[in-house]
Design brief:
single chain; Ubiquitin-like (UB roll); 16-stranded antiparallel β-sheet; 6 helices
Length: 563
């Protein structure tokens, strides 16, 4: 029969008094006795106890306390041993003279000096050897990142006067000359060198910068052209002070096929097929096509795009598409061809300028006609915090202005503004608030000539839950919803995780599609469940329309990222 006492393997009771939290943490970390278990051999405990003064002294000395007074005791009982240390740390050693000199080109480099200034020791500081070591490392790290590859220390020392509890720090850092970039070379045979050079701002002769290297890596790695990216800056030319940049590229798989399916309340069961050629030629041209089929909405879209001089920021695309949509409020068939230019503006905005030719046969209420439009527009979008799974905080803003003129070949003239916003904010680790708003307004010659795809409707999974897809808006004499020239809808939601990858939510939605100022908001409230699946959040909502209290609850199912 084997019997183990309850304290086997348990840590013993080791107490330190007279220390603040920071000092005690360091003392415990550097005193082996503090982590010794109850079942350790007595001879080992006694040896560690005897050496504890030295361990404690070293731990305190590292933080500037060179003359502690230590009283200690060690006792044993039937279950374990116990040690206590009463410590008077005394006065800390403070820096008296701080003599730090930077020699070489870095002495006049304002960027370099600004990087090391925040952590620079000054007279009067408590001597902290860890901080001193970190400061030395930060100087060398900043120097290497900024191209001072010959940098070293001629002197770095700390002299401690224990009697006066002061210390003198002397440091001489020699940066040497700043290196420049050499030529940037890429693996041949993947893309033309002209296209690849567009991914970097580095030019031969520019001052070296580690940030420029990282920016080049991030740009290439996020381009979809390459399976792997490796950048080498070796060997350095120590004679001419030049850093070569050699980029090794492994091409990504060229052709991508995709298929999928799902279900949403708005569109019902649906299927998706996709094909993309991510590298048609060595100029970086790409092709993408998507087919979406459902009982309510089906569409086939294709785009052919190519990069401009700077592929990180600007692309041109030729697009074409077919669409069929049939709801209880409208029906339309359309095809579109267009050209667009996408360009990053600043660090966060994507601007898209576009021109589309749209031919549409549509039926809204008792109106059954066709329309041809040449639409010119500009779209601006910014987003932060996007994630495939649960976004903890972030936002998305989209602004779109588009219009057509009968003087330019369209059947009618209109000008339309559409904007949408979404904001997510976390309240702790498990709870979020989500707010959403969509606004739209149209200036038009004759509303009846506007096709269904240009009119505004409200209701559905992504609008006002509790109401059928596109069931809210102005109606004709027969009570058929015919859409409006303006739109307002908004939502406020709170959700909370109750187990891994699952959350519950409560929400209120309100909105209206309307003409002029003749609006009447419809509001829905409800609760829901979220599952954060590998392909993105899946939402199941049960919503009730407040302005139709006699109607039943409506179930909404949707799939897609939060932002």
């Amino acid at each position: 029969m084997l019997s183990l006492s309850a304290f086997t393997g348990a840590a013993a009771d080791v107490t330190f008094t007279g220390l603040d939290d920071r000092l005690e943490t360091n003392v415990r970390a550097l005193t082996p006795l503090a982590t010794t278990s109850c079942d350790s051999a007595r001879w080992r405990v006694e040896r560690l106890y005897r050496d504890a003064d030295k361990n404690i002294g070293g731990a305190l000395q590292a933080l500037g306390y060179y003359a502690p007074t230590i009283s200690k005791s060690l006792s044993w009982d039937e279950t374990c041993w116990h040690a206590s240390f009463e410590i008077q740390v005394g006065e800390p050693v403070r820096l008296r003279n701080v003599d730090i000199a930077i020699d070489g080109a870095a002495a006049k480099d304002k960027d370099f000096l600004s990087r090391i200034a925040p952590s620079r020791p000054v007279a009067g500081d408590v001597l902290d050897h860890g901080r001193y070591t970190a400061f030395k490392s930060s100087i060398m790290r900043a120097a290497i990142n900024m191209g001072y590859f010959d940098a070293d220390y001629s002197i770095h020392q700390v002299a401690v006067d224990r009697e006066s509890t002061t210390a003198d720090l002397v440091m001489r850092f020699r940066s040497g000359p700043k290196y420049d970039f050499g030529a940037v070379t890429f693996t041949e045979g993947v893309l033309r060198n002209k296209v690849l050079q567009g991914y970097t701002d580095i030019k031969a002769g520019d001052p070296y910068s580690a940030k420029a290297i990282n920016d080049l890596y991030e740009a290439l790695n996020g381009s979809s052209y390459f399976a792997s990216v490796s950048i080498s800056t070796e060997p350095l030319d120590t004679t001419d002070k030049v850093v070569p940049v050699n980029v090794s590229l492994t091409p990504a798989k060229r052709r991508i096929y995709s298929a999928g399916g799902g279900f949403t309340t708005d569109t019902g069961p649906n299927g998706r097929l996709g094909f993309a050629n991510r590298r048609i030629n060595d100029k970086g041209h790409q092709f993408d096509s998507k087919l979406f089929v459902s009982p309510v909405k089906s569409e086939l879209n294709a785009s052919y795009r190519w990069p401009r001089k700077d592929p990180r920021r600007e692309w041109f695309s030729i697009v074409a598409g077919l669409q069929h949509e049939e709801t209880d409020t409208s029906e339309h068939d359309s095809y579109k061809v267009g050209i667009l230019r996408s360009k990053n503006i600043g660090t966060s905005w994507l601007q898209t300028l576009y021109a589309d030719y749209v031919s549409e046969n549509f039926k809204v209420g008792d109106q059954d006609t066709s329309s041809q439009l040449i639409i010119f527009g500009t779209n601006w979008e910014t987003a932060k915090g996007r994630a495939l799974s649960r976004a903890t905080r972030g936002y998305r803003f989209n602004f779109d202005v588009r219009g057509a003129s009968d003087a330019l070949g369209s059947d009618t003239s209109f000008l339309q503004l559409r904007t949408s916003a979404k904001w997510i904010h976390s309240l702790g680790a498990k709870t979020r608030i989500l707010a959403r708003a969509n606004l739209g307004t149209t200036v038009k010659d004759d509303f009846t000539e506007l096709p269904a795809s240009v009119r505004f409707f409200a209701g559905g999974d992504r609008s006002v839950r509790g109401y059928e897809f596109e069931s809210l808006g102005p109606v004709n004499a027969n009570g058929d919803v015919i859409g409006g020239s303006n739109l307002i809808d908004a939502s406020l939601e709170i959700d909370r995780v109750f187990r891994e990858k699952w959350a519950i939510a409560a929400f209120v939605d309100t909105g209206s599609a309307f003409d002029e100022t003749d609006f009447e908001f419809s509001t829905g409230i409800g609760v829901g469940v979220r599952w954060y699946s590998p392909v993105g959040p899946i939402r199941l909502d049960i919503a009730h329309p407040l302005d139709n209290p006699d109607e039943n609850f409506r179930i909404h199912i949707s799939l897609g990222p939060d932002l």
